[in-house]
Write a structure and sequence with these properties.
It holds the Pfam family DUF4439. This protein is an all-alpha fold. The chain is 59% helix and 0% strand. The longest helix has 25 residues, at 193-217.
């Protein structure tokens, strides 16, 4: 078998992407107020806790954590006085009533909250997007499903394209998906039969995303979608598969890096539709990674997929 390297030059450390445009302190205005979109997401998270606490402890724990993170983000953005205190105008009302559209059905709560996040993505502050993207990914894992990115974006705006400011980002993301498909193919060749089957399903997931991205770029004049390269180089610190154990480790890293790449891309997105596409692609990638993480005996949370930057 011909041995090939599988990472392209685009496979830069994801942590660098996440740190770019890092969070900074806020200047206080004369009458600061909580961000309305984040406040709506916080209220939904608090309401979810009250509904799920008796029926879904894991979901309730996740939403309680999300509520606390959102409350902290709202206060950080709202500002503080020189003595460190938060102005009274930044206080958040604690809403515990669930949106009646769910009918109080616990099984509808998490999918409904994920959908609510998507509806608010165009309104939340750019620097808060990576946090919210990871919350959405966790909801997708807990619910076991997430919408197809292209379908969801078309429903938002049937005539939408990527938008000129996001074409380069979409091209880079497509190149990343090509590298992931290539790398997973190398890992699959070294894996045990059972794991190879799981990797095969992951490859199909990445092919689906790549095909959707090509279709999205096809709507933009002169976008010039990239084609797969002949080969890819190994990212710094990554191990080339050479036995079943290293093959599984490489596949897990590729899938988790892909999810983190999409979450970082969402944080850098300037257009609301492309931001939505990236968040949904990130959650799709997390769902794709779950079977491989299970094979490796790793919980998605332990892999850092839900860590809030």
């Amino acid at each position: 078998m011909k041995r090939c390297n599988f990472r392209h030059h685009l496979a830069a450390p994801v942590t660098a992407l996440l740190l770019a445009g890092g969070l900074s302190g806020c200047h206080i205005t004369p009458t600061p107020e909580p961000d309305p979109a984040l406040s709506a997401l916080s209220a939904a998270a608090h309401a979810d806790v009250s509904v799920l606490s008796g029926t879904d402890p894991r979901g309730a724990e996740a939403r309680e954590r999300h509520a606390a993170e959102l409350d902290g983000e709202i206060r950080r953005l709202c500002g503080h006085r020189e003595d460190g205190s938060v102005p009274e105008s930044c206080d958040l009302p604690q809403t515990t009533e669930r949106d009646p559209s769910t009918g109080g059905d616990p099984s509808a709560v998490l999918p409904g909250s994920a959908e609510f996040i998507i509806g608010k993505l165009g309104e939340i502050p750019t620097e808060s997007v990576p946090r919210v993207a990871r919350m959405h990914a966790e909801l997708a894992v807990l619910a076991g499903t997430t919408p197809d990115p292209s379908t969801a974006v078309r429903e938002m705006d049937p005539g939408s394209g990527v938008g000129s400011v996001d074409v380069d980002a979409a091209r880079e993301a497509l190149d990343w998906e090509y590298s992931a498909i290539y790398g997973l193919g190398v890992a699959q060749a070294w894996a045990d039969p059972e794991v190879a089957e799981v990797i095969g399903r992951s490859i199909e997931g990445h092919r689906d995303l790549a095909e959707a991205l090509r279709g999205l770029l096809a709507t933009v004049p002169d976008a010039d979608p990239p084609v797969p390269a002949a080969g890819y180089t190994v990212a710094s610190g990554a191990e080339t598969p050479e036995d079943p154990a290293s093959a599984l480790a490489a596949a897990v890293r590729i899938d988790t890096d892909s999810a983190l790449m999409w979450q970082a891309a969402a944080g850098a997105a300037e257009g609301a539709l492309w931001r939505t596409w990236c968040v949904l692609a990130g959650s799709t990638s997390v769902l794709t990674a779950v079977p491989l993480l299970d094979a490796a005996g790793t919980d998605p949370a332990a892999a850092g997929l839900f860590d809030l930057p």
